[in-house]
Each structure stands twice: as C-alpha cells, then as structure tokens.
C-alpha cells in the first residue's frame, strides 16, 4: 500500500480562525502549505479570504507565527483556481465551517485532485468522521482520519486523532508519530463520538458549573475565583474562558452533543436560558466586547445573570479557600472538595458529576483513563485530569458521599482496588486490571528520576540528577527558579562532578519557566543593607560559574523553555550548545530593574554576535556593538526560539525542540553527540572591542533617545553604564581584550548601579508589583 512516509508539503482548506492558525503552526516547523478558501461572490481578488487571513496572522495575539518570516511558507489560493495544487500536498487538512454537507462537498473535490497516498484529515470539533468519508474512493478512505487541533494551534498542546473504521493502521501510526514528533503536540487517540474527548467532558463540566451557579445563586466572578488556579486550572477559569472562546462557538459545540444523546445527559447539554439570552443580545464574549465580563475603564464588571446587568465583580471568600491555599496535592483537594462552607459545597457539586461523567464515558470516548486525563490537561490546561483528581480526593470517601447523595457510581469504579493509578500503572475497566502506563523514551520525567533515587547532589536551590547513559542534569528548584548563591554553588559542583565522572551536563528543569533571573530580593536586601561587598562576592561567583560552564572540559547543554530571563539567559549563553524549546522567551531584561546583566551576559551576547558573522568578511565592530547595546538596553525578549535566534541568543547550530516534553531528551542527545564527536573545551580567545570611539557612538544614540523623550534621565544613566561595558571601556578602537577584563567592567558597572536609590526602587517595584518601573 502506498502510505506517505513524510509530510513535506501540506494543503489547508479553510482560512478561518483554525485554518490560518494551523497553516501558521506548520510554517513554524518548516512545512510549506497552500491555504485555500472559497471565492467570495463578486470578489475582485479571488484569493481575498486566504490573503486577508494571512495578513491577520501578523496582528493576532498571542502570535500564531513564531517569526514573521515564516509567513513566506504559506501560499494563498482558492478552491476554484488552485485545486490542482492539492496534488502536491502530502497532507490535506480540512478546516471549513462545522457542517457535514460542506465538509463532504470539500472532500469530494479533494478526492478528485489529491495524489494517491496523501493523507487527508478533518479538523472537525465533533462531527462524525466516519460520516464524512461516505462516497469517497478506497485510497481516500484508507488515508482519511480526524485531526482535531485546539485553539490556538501553536500554543495548545492537545491533538486528538480520530481514526475511522477504514483508516489504515500505517496511516494512523504515522500521524501519531507526526503529531508528537513533528507538530510537537500531545497526541490522544479518540473515538468517533460527539465532540471527542476534551470538548465532551469540558462542555459537560462547564454546563454543570453553570447549573450549580444558578442553584446556589452565585455570580460568574465568584465561580471564576474558585475554578481557576485554586483548583489547578488556567487563570481564565470558567467564564473568562467562555468569553474568550465565544458563546456562539460554545453553544454550537454543546448543541452538537445535545442532538446526539438522550435522557439525563441531554438535560445537561440543554443550553441554559442565560446563555441563549446573552447570545440574542450579542453579548457573546471578548470579540463582542462583553460577555460574562465587561471592562469599564480599568475595572472589570461581571454580568448578574438574574438582572442581566453588569455589576462590580465579586470573589468568593471562604475559610476552606484560605486553608487550601496553604496546602498542596491531596490535602488541598480534600479541603476543597469536602469543606462544608459555600466554597466546598460548590466545588463538590460541580466536581462530582464531572468525575462520574468521565468514568461513565471511559471506553466509549477513549480506550483508557490515561487518554482522558491527558486530553483535559493538554486541551484545557488543567494541572490534573479527572481521574488524577479523583485519586487525590480519595476514591472510597468520595464514593460514599456520592452514593449518600443518590448519585450513581459506575460499578467498575467501585470494583477496582481503591485508586485509578498505582505505581506507574492505570486501571483498565475492560480487563479489570492495572496496566502499565506506556513509557515514552523521549519524555524524561525528573520527578520520577528523583523518586527513583537518581539525585547525585542536592542543596536548597538545585539538584544534580543522573539522567543515565553518562549524562547528568542540573535542575534549579528555588522559587521561580531564581538564581541565588545555592544555584551558583551547585553549578560549580556540577561541572566538577561531570568533569570527573560523566560525559556531559544538561542544565534544565520541568518547572513553569526555565528561570526568571537572579534572586532580586536577596540583591535588594544586601543593597539596602550597605552590603555592596556581599553583592560583589555574589556577582563574582556568578561570573566565575558562567566561565566554568563555558570552559568545562565536558560539554554543557542548556535547555531553556518559556521564560528565560536575565540570569536565566546568562546561564544559557556560555553553554557549548543550547537546545531550546520552540516556546522560549529569552532576554537580558536587567535594565527593567535598573541594572545591567552581571553574569557575563553582555560579553557573551557580544561574542555570539561576532561568532555568527560569516567567515572572511571584514567585521564591523561598531555595528555589532550597536546591535548588542540595543538588544540589552531595550530589554528585548524573544517571543519564540526562532526570534531568539534572530537576536543571537541562539546560534544557528543550536537546537530547537518543537515538543517541549522532548526537550530534556533532545538536550541529553546533544550532550552525547558532542561527547561522541570528541568534545574539548573552547580555546580562550581575546575579544576585539570598539573602545572609546564605540562608547561615544553608543552614547550619542542614547542621548538622542533621551532628548526626544523616549527614555528617562535614569534610563540614560543605565544606558551610559551599559555602553561603557559593551564598548570595553577606555581603550582604542579594535583593542583585543581578555574576557576577565570585560567581566570586571561589567561587575563594576553593576555594583555602581545597584547602589543607586533609583535602581533599588525599580527592584522593589518589580518584587512587589511584578512589573518594571520607569523612574
Ligand atoms: P471559521 O468560521 O473561522 O472558518 C471557517 C472557514 O470555512 C472560513 O474560512 C470560510 O470561508 C470557510 N468556508 C465557509 N463555507 C465554505 C464552503 N462552503 N466551502 C469551503 N469553505 C467554506 O471557523 P473555525 O473556527 O476556523 O473552524 C473551522 C473548523 O475547525 C470547524 O470544523 C470547527 O468545528 C473546527 N474547530 C474550531 C475550533 C475553534 O476554537 N474555533 C477549535 C477546534 C476545531
């Protein structure tokens, strides 16, 4: 059978919200596509829809493109003139309006024009995939399946894959691999049932939440204050999520289930009057400017569902919430689920039915509970899936309470041995046994390694962990992974240990962010305490540790992801190789807190710019200094790894992992690769600087910004120090200086700034308010 083994080119049909987002995501990973849409009646430009969709990609937030340059990989076309181009595509994905007749008509055309062996899929949110293939050719049917992305496709991890009864197993296997390894998604296999997995349970949970809100006479604000981070869900909680999704879309999705189920379930999916009422008024959420919430200047108002008026937003206050905030894991869940106050009652009433519903649907919508838990985590951003939560609140206790209330608990839940998960196994109702959770060789689980006793060294801010195969990993564990002396010490220990006993070192972790910078609180405290001498020691130690990373005899590979700011970026720059997540937000942002980088970041970024220049060209040192100055002075932060490359935080040869779950594995492979190729420490080189004339030029730029009012007096003071450091101080243009000289300049400037009241105010503001102060 002719199965496409590689998707090199794609066609995306439908250039709406999802189609354009999918084309953008394909471009981000280097796959060119043609984006097709209908020709609007009387259109002068026959590609009007797809071309305007492409234009919108540049304006959307969060950005669908990881670099504006990627748009060049998407060609616009239409469904009348460009059908022959479908024959060039290895994968054709349909993303048109959610109507079976429209989708079937599209597939009829696709069948006529596609090449044999190309994969065809639908991005439907819940229409039967089986029904879509009716009337199609044999080859089409073998290569056809559902691929359900979540919005926005670049950022949301879940990809539900839905095979039909005729999808060839090779095609299914290939798409699972492609989804995970190439698209970087979390793939879950779903059955062809209404709304598949995540949207089925997600909409049910949301509608139940609404019913309980009405029953308990609570407000959307009160509900959101309980259904967000408190229970491990995104900040947008319930109703703000609904506003972002749009009530029209939500109603459509819920109605799809309503039409296909019966009895009690149907009653839940019956759209509440409030929602219909809101839709009729056009209050459908963010895109209409109002929904459950509405902004009034800076204040956020909430809708009172009884009076249909916007009032001041309320928050739920309860003893159980205060208590839970102090707790973690199972204890926290137990407090929240079983408390007798209003919050406890609400959480139980919305949670219990969702848990039961998930259990009832196991087998029907997915083969196993693991898929359901993953779908909810990857598609809805829950920290834990329903069965993981259920284990935490305690299965036996919860069943008692559920049955006392007259809820019916599926037999298999009562029959299993007290928990859904046990030592790396999950319960399978079909065989009534615990089955091992399949291990994915590309997913390194640090928590598991620690449980397995793989810690080599440990202190209050970091661990050194044995990853196996002769590779060690340095993990930051301080709050926000902020760098303090403990981490600095562990860097030294790690490099010493690795030089003796390992092939190389990965610096990485699995927290929320790689690292948000140095421990500001510690620096501020020392600064206010006249502890400049102490700060000098810390900065010196940090600089030395960075040099140790750079000149380690064994390769060090940094693995940044998400926020990698200030000191976080400084830790990466001296590494032998950086393996970055596609979602890496890197930047030297120290000026925001009145400082300049103090761990060698200025020097390393400057060197990276020099090293990136093509061999043989005359180096324009001033241009290099200008660019580095601008990047640091404006505290530029990349919005992706691709952009980090544009800023030279990453070399072209540094790696990018599309799937963040594979990041540590990829970094480990990079260490092994360097080791096998006979890695040796880099040779110490002198660095040519622009010196006095360079300083004057940089200063001129800063002064004109100041004169035009773009930067404050104090910004100018910082800019002067930064210019001095980047220019390499008071030496003739082109002087070659050694790295230690540059580090000393940097440290001196850092210490002068940290002693300034304006800098201390900026640090204080950042610590208290979480955002920069421009003084
Ligand atoms: P959309 O309304 O933004 O885009 C639909 C596209 O279909 C438009 O470009 C439109 O021009 C095109 N279209 C309309 N009539 C057509 C026809 N007769 N033939 C061909 N194309 C036609 O919708 P969307 O939100 O991008 O949704 C597209 C698909 O993705 C739907 O199946 C939807 O269920 C699914 N989906 C949507 C989301 C979401 O959050 N929006 C998430 C996952 C899946």
From TrEMBL:
Pathway stated in the Swiss-Prot or TrEMBL entry: Lipid metabolism; fatty acid beta-oxidation
Molecular function GO labels: (3S)-3-hydroxyacyl-CoA dehydrogenase (NAD+) activity; NAD+ binding
Residues covered by the 3-hydroxyacyl-CoA dehydrogenase C-terminal domain: 196-294
UniProt keywords, alphabetically: Fatty acid metabolism, Lipid degradation, Lipid metabolism, NAD, Oxidoreductase
Catalytic activity: a (3S)-3-hydroxyacyl-CoA + NAD(+) = a 3-oxoacyl-CoA + NADH + H(+)
InterPro entries xref list: 3-OHacyl-CoA_DH_NAD-bd, 3HC_DH_C, 6-PGluconate_DH-like_C_sf, ClpP/crotonase-like_dom_sf, Enoyl-CoA_hydra/iso, NAD(P)-bd_dom_sf
One of the Pfam families matching this protein, by short name: 3HCDH
3-hydroxyacyl-CoA dehydrogenase NAD binding domain span: 9-193
Taxonomic superkingdom: Bacteria
BP term (GO), one: fatty acid beta-oxidation
Family: Belongs to the 3-hydroxyacyl-CoA dehydrogenase family.
Protein name: 3-hydroxyacyl-CoA dehydrogenase
Lineage: Bacteria, Bacillati, Bacillota, Bacilli, Bacillales
């Amino acid at each position: 059978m002719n199965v496409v083994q590689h998707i090199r080119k794609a066609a995306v049909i439908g250039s709406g919200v999802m189609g354009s987002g999918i084309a953008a995501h394909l471009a981000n990973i280097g796959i060119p596509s043609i984006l097709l849409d209908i020709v609007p009646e009387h259109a002068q430009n026959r590609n009007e829809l797809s071309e305007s969709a492409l234009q919108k990609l540049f304006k959307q937030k969060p950005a669908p493109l990881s670099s504006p340059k990627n748009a060049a990989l998407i060609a616009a076309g239409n469904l009348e003139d460009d059908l022959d181009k479908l024959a060039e595509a290895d994968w054709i994905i349909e993303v048109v309006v959610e109507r079976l007749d429209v989708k079937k008509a599209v597939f009829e055309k696709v069948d006529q024009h596609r090449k044999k062996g190309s994969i065809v899929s639908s991005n439907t949110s819940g229409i039967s995939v089986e029904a879509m293939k009716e009337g199609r050719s044999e080859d089409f049917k073998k290569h056809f399946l559902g691929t359900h992305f979540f919005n926005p496709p670049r950022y949301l991890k879940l990809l539900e894959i839905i095979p039909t009864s005729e999808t060839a197993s090779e095609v299914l296997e290939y798409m699972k691999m492609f989804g995970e390894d190439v698209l970087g998604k979390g793939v879950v296999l779903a059955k062809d049932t209404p709304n598949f997995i995540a949207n089925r349970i997600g909409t049910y949970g949301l509608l139940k939440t609404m019913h309980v809100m009405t029953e308990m006479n609570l407000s959307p604000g009160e509900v959101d204050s309980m259904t967000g981070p408190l229970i491990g869900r995104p900040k947008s909680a319930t109703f703000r999520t609904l506003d972002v999704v749009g009530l029209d879309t939500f109603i459509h999705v819920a109605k799809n289930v309503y039409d296909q189920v019966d009895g009690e379930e149907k009653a839940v999916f019956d759209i509440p009057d409030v929602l219909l009422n809101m839709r009729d008024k056009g209050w459908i959420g963010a895109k209409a400017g109002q929904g459950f919430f509405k902004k009034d200047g800076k204040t956020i108002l909430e809708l009172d569902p009884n009076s249909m008026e916007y009032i001041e937003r309320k928050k739920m206050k309860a003893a159980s919430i205060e208590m839970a905030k102090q707790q973690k894991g199972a204890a926290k869940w137990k407090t929240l689920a079983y408390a007798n106050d209003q919050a406890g009652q609400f959480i139980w009433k919305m949670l219990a039915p969702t848990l039961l519903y998930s259990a009832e649907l196991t087998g029907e919508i997915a083969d196993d509970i693991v898929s359901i838990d993953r779908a909810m985590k990857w598609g809805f951003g829950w920290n834990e899936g329903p069965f993981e939560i259920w284990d935490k609140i305690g299965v036996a206790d919860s069943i008692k309470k559920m049955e006392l209330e007259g809820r019916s608990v599926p037999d298999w839940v009562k029959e299993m041995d007290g928990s859904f998960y046990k030592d790396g196994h999950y319960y399978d109702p079909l065989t009534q046994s615990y089955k091992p959770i399949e291990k994915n060789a590309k997913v390194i689980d640090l928590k598991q390694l620690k449980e397995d006793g793989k810690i080599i060294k440990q202190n209050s801010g970091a661990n050194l962990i044995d990853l196996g195969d002769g590779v060690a990993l340095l993990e930051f564990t301080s709050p926000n992974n902020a760098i303090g002396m403990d981490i600095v010490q562990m860097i030294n220990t790690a490099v010493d240990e690795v030089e003796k006993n390992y092939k190389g070192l990965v610096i990485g972790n699995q927290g929320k962010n790689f690292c948000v910078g140095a421990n500001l609180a510690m620096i501020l405290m020392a600064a206010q305490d006249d502890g400049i001498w102490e700060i000098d020691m810390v900065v010196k130690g940090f600089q030395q540790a960075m040099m140790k990373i750079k000149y380690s005899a064994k390769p060090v590979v940094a693995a940044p992801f998400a926020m990698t700011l200030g000191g976080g970026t400084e830790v990466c720059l001296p590494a032998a190789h950086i393996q970055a997540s596609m979602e890496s937000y890197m930047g030297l942002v120290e000026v925001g807190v009145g400082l300049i980088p103090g761990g060698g970041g200025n020097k390393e970024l400057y060197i990276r710019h020099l090293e990136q220049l093509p061999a043989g060209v005359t180096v324009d040192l001033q241009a290099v200094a200008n660019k580095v100055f601008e990047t640091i002075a404006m505290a530029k932060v990349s919005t992706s790894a691709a952009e980090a490359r544009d800023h030279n935080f990453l070399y072209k040869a540094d790696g990018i992992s599309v799937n963040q779950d594979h990041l540590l594995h990829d970094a480990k492979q990079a260490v092994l690769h360097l080791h096998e190729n006979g890695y040796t420490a880099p040779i110490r080189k002198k660095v040519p600087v622009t010196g006095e004339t360079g300083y004057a030029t940089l200063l001129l730029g800063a002064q004109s910004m100041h004169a035009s009012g773009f930067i404050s007096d104090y910004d100018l003071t910082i800019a002067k120090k930064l210019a001095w450091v980047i220019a390499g101080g008071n030496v003739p243009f082109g002087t070659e200086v050694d790295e230690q000289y540059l580090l000393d300049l940097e440290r001196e400037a850092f210490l002068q700034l940290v002693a300034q009241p304006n800098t201390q105010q900026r640090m204080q503001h950042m610590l208290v308010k979480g955002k920069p102060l421009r003084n």
